[in-house]
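Inputs:
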Amino acid sequence: MCAWLLAMSAMAFGQESTQSVSSQETAPDTAEADNAITLPAMHPVSIEITEALNSKTSKIGQMFAIRLRAPITLDGKVIIPAGATGQGEVIHAARARAAGKAGELIIAARYLDYEGTKLPLRSLKYGADMTGDNNSGAAIVASAAISSALALFITGGQVDIPAGMPATAKLSQDVRIIPSGPITKEEGKP
Amino acid sequence: MTKNKITLLATLAIALAVGPVTAPAIAKDKAAAAKTAVVVDAPPAGKGQVVFFRPGSMMGMALGCNVRENGALIGGLGNGKYFIQAFEPGKHVFTTHSETTDTLNMEIESGETYYVKCGIGMGVVAGRPNIAPSDKATFDEKSAKLKLKTVDQLEKERAKDAAKK
Protein backbone atom coordinates (compact mmCIF):
# COMPACT_ATOMS: atom_id res chain seq x y z
CA MET A 1 0.00 0.00 0.00
CA CYS A 2 2.77 2.30 1.03
CA ALA A 3 4.76 1.40 -2.07
CA TRP A 4 1.66 1.99 -4.19
CA LEU A 5 1.14 5.43 -2.64
CA LEU A 6 4.76 6.24 -3.29
CA ALA A 7 4.43 5.07 -6.88
CA MET A 8 1.31 7.21 -7.33
CA SER A 9 2.95 10.27 -5.84
CA ALA A 10 5.99 9.68 -8.05
CA MET A 11 3.72 9.48 -11.09
CA ALA A 12 1.94 12.65 -10.06
CA PHE A 13 5.27 14.37 -9.59
CA GLY A 14 6.39 13.12 -12.97
CA GLN A 15 3.25 14.49 -14.60
CA GLU A 16 3.68 17.81 -12.87
CA SER A 17 7.28 18.01 -14.07
CA THR A 18 6.26 17.12 -17.61
CA GLN A 19 3.53 19.76 -17.54
CA SER A 20 5.99 22.28 -16.18
CA VAL A 21 8.50 21.56 -18.95
CA SER A 22 5.87 21.49 -21.70
CA SER A 23 4.33 24.77 -20.51
CA GLN A 24 7.76 26.30 -20.80
CA GLU A 25 8.14 24.79 -24.25
CA THR A 26 4.82 26.12 -25.48
CA ALA A 27 5.23 29.54 -23.89
CA PRO A 28 5.41 32.34 -26.42
CA ASP A 29 8.98 33.04 -27.41
CA THR A 30 10.32 36.23 -25.98
CA ALA A 31 13.58 38.00 -26.67
CA GLU A 32 14.66 37.09 -23.15
CA ALA A 33 14.00 33.38 -23.61
CA ASP A 34 15.91 33.44 -26.89
CA ASN A 35 18.92 34.88 -25.11
CA ALA A 36 18.87 32.30 -22.31
CA ILE A 37 22.18 30.55 -21.81
CA THR A 38 22.81 27.47 -19.69
CA LEU A 39 26.05 27.35 -17.79
CA PRO A 40 26.81 23.67 -17.20
CA ALA A 41 27.46 22.09 -13.81
CA MET A 42 31.16 21.93 -12.93
CA HIS A 43 31.87 25.07 -14.95
CA PRO A 44 34.90 26.76 -13.30
CA VAL A 45 34.61 30.14 -11.64
CA SER A 46 37.33 32.38 -10.28
CA ILE A 47 36.38 34.08 -7.05
CA GLU A 48 37.96 35.95 -4.19
CA ILE A 49 37.22 35.83 -0.50
CA THR A 50 36.44 39.42 0.37
CA GLU A 51 36.40 38.98 4.16
CA ALA A 52 39.35 38.14 6.34
CA LEU A 53 38.95 34.79 8.11
CA ASN A 54 40.93 33.33 10.98
CA SER A 55 41.00 29.92 12.67
CA LYS A 56 40.84 31.58 16.08
CA THR A 57 37.96 33.96 15.49
CA SER A 58 35.88 32.30 12.75
CA LYS A 59 32.90 30.22 13.85
CA ILE A 60 31.53 27.05 12.30
CA GLY A 61 28.51 27.96 10.18
CA GLN A 62 29.59 31.58 9.79
CA MET A 63 28.81 32.99 6.36
CA PHE A 64 31.34 35.22 4.65
CA ALA A 65 31.40 37.36 1.52
CA ILE A 66 32.86 36.24 -1.80
CA ARG A 67 33.05 38.00 -5.15
CA LEU A 68 33.41 36.90 -8.76
CA ARG A 69 37.03 37.70 -9.57
CA ALA A 70 37.02 37.05 -13.33
CA PRO A 71 34.05 36.99 -15.70
CA ILE A 72 32.31 33.66 -16.22
CA THR A 73 32.77 32.85 -19.87
CA LEU A 74 31.35 30.25 -22.20
CA ASP A 75 32.61 29.67 -25.75
CA GLY A 76 34.68 32.83 -25.58
CA LYS A 77 31.76 35.01 -24.55
CA VAL A 78 31.33 36.80 -21.24
CA ILE A 79 28.16 35.47 -19.66
CA ILE A 80 28.55 37.00 -16.20
CA PRO A 81 30.87 39.96 -15.66
CA ALA A 82 33.29 40.05 -12.74
CA GLY A 83 32.02 41.60 -9.55
CA ALA A 84 28.96 39.46 -8.77
CA THR A 85 28.83 38.88 -5.03
CA GLY A 86 27.92 35.82 -3.03
CA GLN A 87 28.58 33.88 0.13
CA GLY A 88 30.72 31.13 1.52
CA GLU A 89 30.48 29.19 4.77
CA VAL A 90 32.97 28.20 7.44
CA ILE A 91 32.76 24.39 7.70
CA HIS A 92 35.40 23.87 10.36
CA ALA A 93 37.40 26.21 12.55
CA ALA A 94 39.69 25.26 15.41
CA ARG A 95 42.20 27.55 17.00
CA ALA A 96 45.80 26.57 17.56
CA ARG A 97 46.45 25.11 20.99
CA ALA A 98 49.34 24.22 23.18
CA ALA A 99 51.16 20.93 22.61
CA GLY A 100 51.54 21.54 18.89
CA LYS A 101 47.94 21.56 17.68
CA ALA A 102 47.90 23.91 14.71
CA GLY A 103 44.99 26.13 13.77
CA GLU A 104 42.52 24.58 11.30
CA LEU A 105 40.10 26.21 8.91
CA ILE A 106 37.91 24.66 6.23
CA ILE A 107 35.65 26.82 4.14
CA ALA A 108 33.20 26.22 1.31
CA ALA A 109 31.81 28.46 -1.42
CA ARG A 110 28.00 28.49 -1.39
CA TYR A 111 26.72 30.74 -4.19
CA LEU A 112 27.12 33.81 -6.34
CA ASP A 113 24.18 36.09 -6.97
CA TYR A 114 23.75 37.46 -10.48
CA GLU A 115 20.78 39.78 -10.92
CA GLY A 116 18.61 37.66 -8.66
CA THR A 117 19.77 34.28 -10.02
CA LYS A 118 21.73 32.17 -7.56
CA LEU A 119 24.68 30.27 -8.95
CA PRO A 120 25.33 27.39 -6.52
CA LEU A 121 29.00 26.61 -6.02
CA ARG A 122 31.12 23.64 -4.94
CA SER A 123 34.72 22.37 -5.07
CA LEU A 124 36.36 25.44 -3.56
CA LYS A 125 40.12 25.49 -3.91
CA TYR A 126 42.38 27.97 -2.31
CA GLY A 127 44.76 30.24 -4.10
CA ALA A 128 44.31 29.15 -7.71
CA ASP A 129 44.34 32.05 -10.11
CA MET A 130 42.27 31.53 -13.23
CA THR A 131 42.29 34.94 -14.86
CA GLY A 132 42.30 35.42 -18.61
CA ASP A 133 43.46 32.48 -20.69
CA ASN A 134 44.14 30.41 -17.62
CA ASN A 135 40.42 30.12 -16.98
CA SER A 136 40.22 26.62 -18.47
CA GLY A 137 39.58 23.06 -17.50
CA ALA A 138 43.30 22.34 -17.54
CA ALA A 139 43.88 24.97 -14.86
CA ILE A 140 41.26 23.32 -12.70
CA VAL A 141 42.89 19.92 -13.01
CA ALA A 142 46.27 21.44 -12.21
CA SER A 143 44.93 23.12 -9.09
CA ALA A 144 43.27 19.87 -8.07
CA ALA A 145 46.68 18.25 -8.12
CA ILE A 146 48.08 20.91 -5.83
CA SER A 147 45.40 21.26 -3.22
CA SER A 148 42.63 19.13 -1.85
CA ALA A 149 39.01 19.59 -2.67
CA LEU A 150 38.38 21.97 0.17
CA ALA A 151 40.25 25.13 0.87
CA LEU A 152 42.61 24.15 3.63
CA PHE A 153 45.01 26.59 5.21
CA ILE A 154 47.14 25.24 7.98
CA THR A 155 50.17 26.83 9.52
CA GLY A 156 52.05 26.21 12.71
CA GLY A 157 49.98 28.81 14.48
CA GLN A 158 46.65 30.30 13.57
CA VAL A 159 45.30 30.19 10.05
CA ASP A 160 44.77 33.54 8.39
CA ILE A 161 42.92 34.16 5.17
CA PRO A 162 43.37 37.79 4.22
CA ALA A 163 40.57 39.72 2.50
CA GLY A 164 41.00 39.50 -1.26
CA MET A 165 42.41 35.95 -1.26
CA PRO A 166 41.84 34.38 -4.72
CA ALA A 167 40.22 30.96 -5.02
CA THR A 168 38.44 28.81 -7.56
CA ALA A 169 35.15 26.95 -7.42
CA LYS A 170 32.77 25.17 -9.78
CA LEU A 171 29.06 25.47 -10.45
CA SER A 172 27.32 22.66 -8.59
CA GLN A 173 24.45 22.42 -11.09
CA ASP A 174 23.33 23.74 -14.47
CA VAL A 175 22.31 27.39 -14.25
CA ARG A 176 20.07 29.10 -16.80
CA ILE A 177 21.01 32.73 -17.25
CA ILE A 178 19.15 35.41 -19.16
CA PRO A 179 21.73 38.13 -19.75
CA SER A 180 20.41 41.61 -19.08
CA GLY A 181 22.64 43.26 -21.68
CA PRO A 182 24.44 42.38 -24.90
CA ILE A 183 26.90 39.49 -24.62
CA THR A 184 30.49 40.60 -25.14
CA LYS A 185 33.46 38.58 -26.31
CA GLU A 186 36.06 37.56 -23.77
CA GLU A 187 39.09 39.88 -23.86
CA GLY A 188 41.86 38.55 -26.06
CA LYS A 189 39.54 36.10 -27.83
CA PRO A 190 38.83 36.48 -31.57
CA MET B 1 98.67 6.37 14.65
CA THR B 2 96.60 7.86 17.38
CA LYS B 3 92.95 7.00 17.94
CA ASN B 4 91.89 10.50 16.81
CA LYS B 5 93.71 10.15 13.49
CA ILE B 6 92.06 6.79 12.84
CA THR B 7 88.63 8.29 13.53
CA LEU B 8 89.37 11.22 11.18
CA LEU B 9 90.51 8.89 8.38
CA ALA B 10 87.48 6.68 8.83
CA THR B 11 85.19 9.69 8.64
CA LEU B 12 86.92 10.92 5.46
CA ALA B 13 86.64 7.48 3.89
CA ILE B 14 82.91 7.32 4.59
CA ALA B 15 82.43 10.86 3.25
CA LEU B 16 84.28 9.99 0.02
CA ALA B 17 82.35 6.76 -0.39
CA VAL B 18 78.94 8.37 0.14
CA GLY B 19 79.75 11.60 -1.68
CA PRO B 20 78.62 15.10 -0.85
CA VAL B 21 74.94 15.65 -0.10
CA THR B 22 74.02 18.53 -2.35
CA ALA B 23 70.74 20.37 -2.89
CA PRO B 24 70.09 18.67 -6.27
CA ALA B 25 70.62 15.31 -4.57
CA ILE B 26 67.96 16.17 -2.01
CA ALA B 27 65.65 17.37 -4.78
CA LYS B 28 66.27 14.06 -6.58
CA ASP B 29 65.25 12.16 -3.44
CA LYS B 30 62.04 14.18 -3.18
CA ALA B 31 61.31 13.56 -6.84
CA ALA B 32 61.91 9.84 -6.32
CA ALA B 33 59.55 9.87 -3.34
CA ALA B 34 56.91 11.65 -5.41
CA LYS B 35 57.30 9.02 -8.14
CA THR B 36 56.55 6.25 -5.71
CA ALA B 37 53.64 8.12 -4.13
CA VAL B 38 50.49 6.06 -3.74
CA VAL B 39 47.98 6.68 -6.51
CA VAL B 40 44.51 7.14 -5.06
CA ASP B 41 41.70 6.12 -7.39
CA ALA B 42 38.64 8.32 -7.86
CA PRO B 43 35.79 7.71 -5.39
CA PRO B 44 32.79 5.53 -6.37
CA ALA B 45 30.15 7.30 -8.48
CA GLY B 46 28.06 9.73 -6.47
CA LYS B 47 30.34 9.57 -3.44
CA GLY B 48 33.30 11.43 -2.04
CA GLN B 49 36.20 9.82 -0.20
CA VAL B 50 38.63 10.60 2.57
CA VAL B 51 42.19 9.36 2.80
CA PHE B 52 42.97 9.07 6.51
CA PHE B 53 46.70 8.77 7.16
CA ARG B 54 49.18 8.85 9.99
CA PRO B 55 52.84 9.42 9.12
CA GLY B 56 55.33 7.30 11.03
CA SER B 57 56.71 9.06 14.08
CA MET B 58 58.49 8.21 17.32
CA MET B 59 56.08 10.47 19.18
CA GLY B 60 53.28 8.34 20.62
CA MET B 61 54.02 5.51 18.22
CA ALA B 62 52.36 2.96 20.51
CA LEU B 63 49.13 4.96 20.65
CA GLY B 64 46.24 4.30 18.32
CA CYS B 65 44.30 6.98 16.51
CA ASN B 66 40.75 5.70 16.20
CA VAL B 67 38.65 7.79 13.86
CA ARG B 68 34.92 7.70 14.55
CA GLU B 69 31.72 9.20 13.23
CA ASN B 70 28.67 9.31 15.52
CA GLY B 71 30.52 6.96 17.86
CA ALA B 72 30.96 4.27 15.22
CA LEU B 73 34.51 3.31 14.33
CA ILE B 74 35.59 4.22 10.82
CA GLY B 75 39.09 2.89 11.32
CA GLY B 76 42.11 2.91 13.55
CA LEU B 77 45.34 4.45 12.38
CA GLY B 78 48.45 2.83 13.72
CA ASN B 79 51.82 4.46 13.28
CA GLY B 80 52.62 4.75 9.56
CA LYS B 81 49.22 3.51 8.31
CA TYR B 82 46.53 4.86 6.00
CA PHE B 83 43.11 3.87 4.74
CA ILE B 84 40.59 5.21 2.26
CA GLN B 85 36.90 5.45 3.04
CA ALA B 86 34.05 6.53 0.74
CA PHE B 87 31.23 8.67 2.16
CA GLU B 88 27.88 10.01 1.05
CA PRO B 89 28.13 13.68 0.09
CA GLY B 90 27.26 16.10 2.88
CA LYS B 91 28.48 17.22 6.25
CA HIS B 92 30.42 14.75 8.37
CA VAL B 93 31.85 15.06 11.86
CA PHE B 94 34.87 12.90 12.63
CA THR B 95 36.28 12.47 16.12
CA THR B 96 39.21 10.84 17.82
CA HIS B 97 39.35 10.39 21.56
CA SER B 98 41.99 9.92 24.25
CA GLU B 99 42.37 12.32 27.18
CA THR B 100 40.28 14.74 25.18
CA THR B 101 38.14 14.49 22.08
CA ASP B 102 39.36 16.10 18.90
CA THR B 103 36.70 16.92 16.32
CA LEU B 104 36.98 17.61 12.61
CA ASN B 105 33.98 18.92 10.65
CA MET B 106 34.04 18.26 6.94
CA GLU B 107 31.75 18.72 4.00
CA ILE B 108 32.21 15.96 1.47
CA GLU B 109 31.29 16.54 -2.15
CA SER B 110 30.74 13.82 -4.73
CA GLY B 111 33.72 13.01 -6.89
CA GLU B 112 36.21 14.68 -4.52
CA THR B 113 39.04 13.19 -2.49
CA TYR B 114 39.97 14.70 0.86
CA TYR B 115 42.95 14.07 3.10
CA VAL B 116 42.94 13.87 6.88
CA LYS B 117 46.12 13.46 8.89
CA CYS B 118 46.36 12.05 12.38
CA GLY B 119 49.18 13.29 14.56
CA ILE B 120 49.95 12.60 18.19
CA GLY B 121 50.39 15.67 20.37
CA MET B 122 51.58 15.85 23.96
CA GLY B 123 49.01 15.26 26.66
CA VAL B 124 49.10 15.44 30.46
CA VAL B 125 49.04 11.68 31.06
CA ALA B 126 49.24 10.24 27.53
CA GLY B 127 49.64 11.51 23.97
CA ARG B 128 46.66 13.15 22.34
CA PRO B 129 45.68 12.04 18.84
CA ASN B 130 44.70 14.96 16.67
CA ILE B 131 42.91 14.69 13.33
CA ALA B 132 43.46 17.64 11.05
CA PRO B 133 42.66 18.52 7.45
CA SER B 134 45.56 17.89 5.11
CA ASP B 135 46.18 17.83 1.38
CA LYS B 136 47.33 15.62 -1.48
CA ALA B 137 50.83 17.09 -1.54
CA THR B 138 51.43 16.16 2.10
CA PHE B 139 50.03 12.67 1.58
CA ASP B 140 52.10 12.15 -1.58
CA GLU B 141 55.25 13.12 0.28
CA LYS B 142 54.61 10.50 2.97
CA SER B 143 52.58 7.83 1.20
CA ALA B 144 55.51 5.75 -0.08
CA LYS B 145 56.36 4.90 3.53
CA LEU B 146 52.77 4.30 4.65
CA LYS B 147 51.08 0.92 4.81
CA LEU B 148 47.50 0.53 3.57
CA LYS B 149 44.87 -0.83 5.88
CA THR B 150 42.67 -3.02 3.71
CA VAL B 151 38.88 -3.07 3.63
CA ASP B 152 38.95 -6.55 5.25
CA GLN B 153 41.11 -5.29 8.09
CA LEU B 154 38.84 -2.30 8.59
CA GLU B 155 35.70 -4.44 8.62
CA LYS B 156 37.18 -6.82 11.20
CA GLU B 157 38.21 -3.87 13.33
CA ARG B 158 34.74 -2.32 13.13
CA ALA B 159 33.03 -5.61 14.00
CA LYS B 160 35.32 -6.02 17.02
CA ASP B 161 34.62 -2.46 18.14
CA ALA B 162 30.85 -2.89 17.70
CA ALA B 163 30.96 -6.15 19.71
CA LYS B 164 32.63 -4.32 22.60
CA LYS B 165 29.66 -2.00 22.81
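Chain B is about 30% helix and 35% strand. Flag for discussion at group meeting.
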